[in-house]
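Example (one chain per record):
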Amino acid sequence: MKPANVTRIIIACAVLRLMWGEPAVDPEPLEEVAKGDMFQAVSDGRRVRDTIVANYFT
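Predicted structure:
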């Protein structure tokens, strides 16, 4: 395909996207996290690693 044709296709897609507008989708509500479940510690690499391992790999 020639570069001129590719450019025309991309411009046509952009124009159609602008004409279509924003999607009419309601965002899903975020899940509430209890304060006690959050990781609250000093940013020590070993503690962070241990917490990740404890939460996801055990």
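Caption: The chain has a mean pLDDT of 77.
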